[in-house]
Amino acid sequence: MSLLLRDLRVPLELEGLPPAELAARKLGVTVDSASILRKSLDARAGREPVFIYTLRLDLTPAAARRLAKRRRPRGVALVDEATSAARELNAPTRTPPERAPLRHRPVIVGAGPAGLFAAWQLLRDGFRPLLLERGQDATTRARQWFDFLGGGAFDPESNLLFGEGGAGTFSDGKLTTRIKDPRVASVLNVFVQHGAPESTRWLAKPHLGSNALPGMVRAMRRALVAAGAEVRFGVRVDELLVERDAVVGLRCGDERIDADAVVLAIGHSARDTYDMLIDKGVAMTAKPFQLGLRVEHPQEFVDRAQYGAACGHPNLPVAEYSLVSRKPAGAGDVYSFCMCPGGEILPATQRAGLLCVNGASPRARDGRFANSGVVITVQPGEFGDTPRGGLALQERLEARAFQLGGNDFGAPGQRVVDFLANRVSTSLGPTSYPFAVRSAPLAEVLPDNAVPALQAALRDFDRKLPGYVCDEAMLVGPESRSSAPLRIERGDDHASISHAGLYPVGEGAGWAGGIVSAAVDGLRAAEALAVSFRPASNAG
Description:
Helices cover about 30% and strands about 25% of the residues. It is an alpha/beta fold.
């Protein structure tokens, strides 16, 4: 008999025992086998850290009968898995309408998670997509990136934002998401099939690591090509070709590519592509986006603050935090974002003359520092309420940051205590940022109304995590590319409301935030495309 055991709380000293033994200790019956469905860590301040499991159990009929005669252990929910499976099997399905054939193979613009998973789904539905990426493959891109960090030239077409895998390839590789969609499991399974650890399927906060994710992305691309997709790197889309408000192709330099279905997965930093789409009349609206700074502490502080007396226990992972300050200084909520334990702060921009920062962590998360975004949501009314308004605000602040950082990809920085006191730091402590960090008033890289809100939030964070405001805490900024400031409008069929055959997806279209949600959005769009069209026999 298969059962689910939920909310199994495992103290630190028992962590590492086989799941079947953990379940048997709790239930008092022999458990034949057990597999992990979910695992999280409850390390809230003032409590002894404890791991929380959800397990799938296999019991003999005799053990199941003994368990049924006993009072159910407090806090444990047992669910007959067969009943849940039957409900799913009996769920109604939708029959697709008669589909029109595509004259050409579908084209996907962008090889980030939305684009890669759209290609994955299109192949499953019988299409042979063409995937275009303006940046380079992950191997070339990594070489270019590390050459740049070593003092080499910056490539505006292939960098931390552009290239195979998208902006997340050299990030922490966080696969945490709040969306509730059965496709999430499919996304995690694909990552596991291409090199991610098995725990990716069931950890509450899975992360792949900046040093591991590029290899997985390469493996995914090779599988796509082997299945019939074509992937081309170093190809930038310069123009969307349109006739009577319908997509008919793309211009890439001097080349024309005919296409009557285009999945647009451009990411949140393709400014030239945004401008081209706006000029073409593609329907867009301004939307709220997040903006703020990166804060960095010694990782040792975060471990002590989170784990208390349990700090240093061999069964505990490197500590992280998630903090929210509700409407500080009368503004919107301020919260920590993309927290990177044992990580580093990196320059994240698509061209020289602009500077913004982001965080990353290797698989081991074994660096000296912990960094996190501290961001506030900027509303459209604060930047002109037009699609270009948010882009202009980002670039104005990023241009000032580039100047304050020394015009050489150095970054402006300030101690937290000095930011709160509205004074320029006379000296700066060490940071993980790979270039120079130069003392500067970070208020100059923020909208005026964001400064008091961030200051109030930092003080609030110090109350929630004592010691957060300290002389060692450093701020670097701005964190301005956490989300797109516009949305490319689409209907329920995932197609543009203004241009037939155009499918805007992912973070760049304003419909996702993070690797998993972007991947799921790519899957949904590909499914919608396959409902409307069928592959043409000559489309290849």
